[in-house]
Write a structure and sequence with these properties.
This protein is an all-alpha fold. It has two domains: 1-72, Recoverin, domain 1, CATH 1.10.238; 73-160, EF-hand (Recoverin, domain 1). The protein contains ten helices and no strands. Helix 4 packs across helix 6 and helix 6 (74-85) crosses helix 9. It starts with a helix and ends in a 6-residue tail after the last helix.
Length: 161
């Protein structure tokens, strides 16, 4: 992990990698993130940068790798997935978050976008399936409940080599 992190820095900075932050633009060059539709959210969630630039320290990088590793528990994976999908960082997945989530998964091109009616129907279906307390949003425990019924989720490897 240290070798991969330090390789994201210019050669002359590599020996000080533990004390430096790697810019988001360099993190996004990782093959595992390059094609990930949530790449920007992943950087936002794992970055501890006080500048809001989504740069990562070595510790941030380790946290990200550990969450996407085989050894991470389903609870840890679902907690971070929820944070990644919570685009406005308000602690719930509301209709706007779900729309952004669907758009990320289906692609941003016009031909891939769902019609307004299709999007509304899909969001309604998601909420009917997941919104246990019927408040119009999905909280972390509701999200984890849905995820617990999806065996594929626990096997998701994300950032592995």
């Amino acid at each position: 992990a240290y070798k991969r992190f330090s390789e994201l820095l210019p050669k002359e900075q590599r020996e000080n990698a533990c004390s430096l932050r790697v810019p988001k633009s360099r993190i996004l060059t990782l093959p595992e993130l390059r094609a990930n539709p949530f790449q920007h959210r992943i950087c936002r969630v794992f970055s501890t940068s006080e500048d809001g630039d989504d740069s990562m320290s070595f510790e941030d990088f380790l946290d990200m790798l550990s969450v996407f590793s085989d050894s991470a528990t389903s609870d840890i994976k679902s907690h971070y997935a929820f944070r990644i999908f919570d685009f406005d960082d308000d602690g719930t997945l509301d209709r706007k978050d779900l729309e952004k989530l669907v758009n990320c998964l289906t692609g941003q091109g016009e031909e891939a976008r769902l019609s307004n009616a299709e999007m509304e129907q899909l969001i309604q279906n998601i909420l009917e399936e997941s919104d246990i307390d019927k408040d119009g949003t999905i909280n972390l425990s509701e999200f984890q409940h849905v995820i617990s019924r999806s065996p594929d989720f626990a096997r998701y490897r994300g950032l592995q080599r």
